[in-house]
Design the sequence.
C-alpha cells in the first residue's frame, strides 16, 4: 500500500480507497507513513471500506486493472485510452480497481466494471507488481490531465518535460521568420556557402531544422544579427572596390 500512495500522488484528482485491508487502521501504520513520504496527504485522506460496492459509491464508471484477460469481461482498454476518456468526459466519476499482489481481482468484481484495463507490457513478462501498475496509470492520467489543461507538460517544482525551457519569450511571427531566412540566405551566398545558381535543398532543410525550434522573436533577431555581421564587411569591401574602380 505504501508505494501505491506515492504513485497516486502523481495525479492531482485521484483518491485512495482501501477495501478490507489486512490491518484495520492501515493508513496509520508506521511503514505506510514512512513509504508515503511526500504524499502523506493522499494517505491521510484515504478511505477504508468493507466492500467493493461501498468503495464504488458515487462512481459512474469503473475499470478493473488486470494483466490477465478474461473470457467474460467488459471491453479491454489501454491506460492511455482510459486516461483520455476520463479526462475528456467531465461527467464521469471514475474508479480504478486493483487487486492484491497475490490473487489480483476476482472475476465477479471484474464483471461489475465498465472496462478491463490491461497494461500492454512485454508479453513474456506481463505481470507488474501493484505499485508499478498504480504508477503507470497515475502517470498516464496526469499527462492527459496536463494536455487537456493546455499548459506546459510539467509536474511540480523544477521537473519539466524534455525540451521544455524555463522561460518562454514571444513567438516569432511568420513574417519575422521569413525575413530572417531571406537575410540568412544573403549571408550564406556572401560567404560562398550557398550557390544561388545551384542552391539544391539547403534553404528548405534549414527551414525544417529551425521549424523544430519554435523560434522566438529574440532568437530571430540574434540570427539576423549574425547575418548582418557577415554581410557588412562584405558590403563595405565591395563598396571600396567600386570606389577604387571609379
Sequence:
Amino acid at each position: 500500500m505504501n508505494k501505491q500512495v506515492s504513485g497516486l500522488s502523481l495525479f492531482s484528482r485521484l483518491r485512495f480507497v482501501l477495501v478490507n485491508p489486512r490491518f484495520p487502521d492501515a493508513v496509520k501504520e508506521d511503514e505506510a507513513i514512512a513509504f508515503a513520504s511526500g504524499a502523506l496527504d493522499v494517505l491521510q485522506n484515504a478511505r477504508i471500506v468493507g466492500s467493493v460496492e461501498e468503495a464504488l459509491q458515487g462512481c459512474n464508471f469503473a475499470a478493473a486493472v488486470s494483466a490477465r484477460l478474461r473470457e467474460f469481461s467488459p471491453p479491454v482498454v489501454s491506460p492511455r485510452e482510459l486516461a483520455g476518456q476520463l479526462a475528456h468526459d467531465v461527467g464521469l466519476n471514475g474508479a480504478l480497481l486493483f487487486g492484491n499482489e497475490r490473487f489480483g481481482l476476482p472475476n465477479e468484481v471484474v464483471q461489475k466494471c465498465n472496462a478491463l484495463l490491461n497494461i500492454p507490457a512485454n508479453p513474456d513478462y506481463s505481470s507488474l507488481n501493484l505499485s508499478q501498475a498504480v504508477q503507470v496509470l497515475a502517470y498516464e492520467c496526469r499527462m492527459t490531465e496536463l494536455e487537456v489543461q493546455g499548459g506546459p507538460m510539467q509536474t511540480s517544482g523544477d521537473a519539466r518535460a524534455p525540451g521544455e525551457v524555463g522561460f518562454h519569450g514571444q513567438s516569432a511571427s511568420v513574417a519575422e521568420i521569413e525575413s530572417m531566412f531571406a537575410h540568412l540566405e544573403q549571408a550564406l551566398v556572401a560567404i560562398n556557402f550557398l550557390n544561388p545558381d545551384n542552391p539544391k535543398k539547403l534553404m528548405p532543410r534549414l527551414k525544417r531544422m529551425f521549424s523544430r525550434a519554435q523560434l522566438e522573436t529574440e532568437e530571430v533577431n540574434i540570427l539576423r544579427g549574425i547575418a548582418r555581421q557577415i554581410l557588412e564587411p562584405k558590403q563595405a569591401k565591395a563598396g571600396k572596390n567600386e570606389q577604387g574602380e571609379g
Notes: The longest strand covers residues 61-65. The radius of gyration is 29 Å. Confidence is low (pLDDT under 50) at residues 1-12, 152-162.
